[in-house]
Amino acid sequence: MNRFINAIAITTTLVLVQACSSLPKAEEKAMSVSTHQHEEPSINESHYGEHSTSSTIHGEKKALTQAKLKAPSNITPNKSIPLLIDVQDLNGKAIAKFDTFQEKLMHLIIVSDDLQFFSHLHPTYKDNGQFEVEASFPQAGGYTFFSDYKPAGQTEQISVLKTQVPGITIAAPEIDIKRSKTFNDTQVNLALSEPTVKAGQEVTLMFKLQDAANNQPLTDLQPYLGEKGHLVILRQSSSLTAADYIHAHALKNTPTGQVHFMTSFPQAGKYKLWGQFNRNGKIITSDFWINVV
């Protein structure tokens, strides 16, 4: 699987139909989903929200699949809700088989639109193209879902959907540009192979992990999802789309306590990185900002 975004398929169309009866009834709620990389119509719906998106290969615009997301309309902050993702071909037939990649059949990335909240979930496959998972949202505001899956024999697909949690939104804090942070008992230092990161230029992102107590390189790192680590990158945008999403893969044969990723950034802007690592069975999620010119 190519480690760059041009290997990934992105979502394009929107369909609204009656949601499944397995989700509890709720009050009417407005939700939206992007129909292509730069446009996102909004809709109102009662009881539950269901959206479908057809996926295309980035650059080729070749439709492959459509994915439907169903969720209760009444979303309350910090309360777990059920989500159902239904994957079909373009004729509406359920896709029954999926390839495992990075040890899972589906990866679901949920972020708040201000990029302050990040969640990486793995929905359970229930057969007949349907995946189920529970998620919660910490506060009011907009959220974007990146559903990452791979139908058997096809390229990786990403379905992008959005929802709004009602309530009073809280202003996001200023961007923290520090390259060294401590997460519980682990210090994570981010170094770049280039002094200035330029759009379209390949760059290596080097995460150096140390024990916060003695500043020594970690010796208890274990594989996470079949690799040394997991990295998701998103460009800061007023409306997140698949064009803002990068999923990079860890390089092999790196020094003790270090996890490296090679990628490129499609355009200039501010990007947030979430590097995830397995320290003796405990997942560390580190976050950093970088500027791309």
UniProtKB/TrEMBL annotation:
PROSITE patterns: PROKAR_LIPOPROTEIN (PS51257). Residues 37-57 are annotated as: Disordered. Keywords: Plasmid. It comes from the Bacteria. This is YtkA-like domain-containing protein. It comes from Anabaenopsis circularis NIES-21.
